[in-house]
Amino acid sequence: MMRKETAPLLRILLATSVVGLSCFVLRAVAAPPADGYSIVKKIAIPGQGSWDYLSVDEGARRLYVSHGTQVEVLDVDSESVVATIPNTPGVHGIAIAPELGRGFISNGKSSTVTIFDLKTLKPIADVPTGQKPDAIIFDPATSRVFAFNGGSNSATAIDAATGKVAGTVDLGGGPEYAAADGKGFVYDNLEDESLVLKIDSRKLTVDQRWPTAPCASPSSMAMDAANRRLFLGCRNKVMAVMNADTGKVITTLPIGDHVDATAFDPETKLIFNSNGEGTLTVIRQESPDKYSAVETVKTAPKAKTMALDPKTHRLFLSTAESNQFEVLVVGK
Length: 332
Description:
The chain is mostly beta strands and 332 residues long. The chain is 8% helix and 54% strand. A 4-stranded antiparallel beta sheet has the order 1-28-27-26, with no helix packed on it. Strand 18 and strand 19 form a beta hairpin. It is globular.
C-alpha cells in the first residue's frame, strides 16, 4: 500500500519525466536534418557601411560583394578577399558578362553604372542611368545590361560591349529584382504594385503586366529557364511560383519574414529564399508544378541578400553583427 506522503512525490517524478520526454521530442523535431544546410564559415571583411546584392562569377571563381562605396572581390574557392573595386557610391548590384570580359556595378547615390574589366578589376567607364539604380542583370540574348532605377520607376538598358545607353523602359512602378530568360525577355518585380513585368529586351517595351496575388510585395526573383518558371520571394512571407509564359501563379509556399533574395540551383532542384529575420528557407522542386518545403536554416539577422555558387552549391550571404561586416558561407 502506498504511503500518503510518497504519493505526491511520485506524481512529481512522473510529471517531470513526461516534461523531460516532451522536451526531448521537441528538440528532436526542431533539429536540422543531418545532411541539411548550415553556416560553415564566416568571412570577416574590414570596414563599415551598408550592403546589398552579391554576385558569383562561376567561371572566374569570384564573388562580388556590395559594401558601402566599394565592391569587395573574394576568391570563391579560398573564401578570402583578394581585391576591392572603389568609388562605387551607394553600390547595390553587380552584373557579370563573362563572354565580354566586363562587369557592371549599379551606384545608387551617383545614378551611374560603373563598367569594369573582369581580369584587371579596373574601371572602364561610368554610364548615366535613371535615379537610384538598384538591381542590375545581364541579358545574354541581347548583350544588354539592365539597371532598374528605384528613384525613377524605369530601367536603363546599356549595350554591354560599347557601354552606350540603348534606351530606357518606363516601368510604371517601383522595380525590385529581375531575371532574364536568355530568349529575349527580362522579368522584373514591381514591389509596390504587386506585379511582375515581362519586358521585351530587344524592343525595350513592357510586353505583359501580371498580378502576383496571393503573393504581395514581391521583392526577389529567380528563374528556372528550362521549365519556364519564376520564383518570387514575397514580403507577405510566401514564395510564389509563376509560369513565365502565361503569368499564372501556380502555387505558394511559406517562407521567412523580409525576404530579399531568391536563388535556384538547377542541379539540385532546390530554391533558396534569404530572409532578413535571420533565416534561409529551402524549397525543393519536385516537378515544374509541384514543390515542397525542405528546411529552415538559421543564418543571422539582416542577412537578406544572397548569391549561389552553382559549382559547389554553397550560398553566400552578407550581414553585420556587432558592427563587423562579414560574409556567411552556407553549405553542407
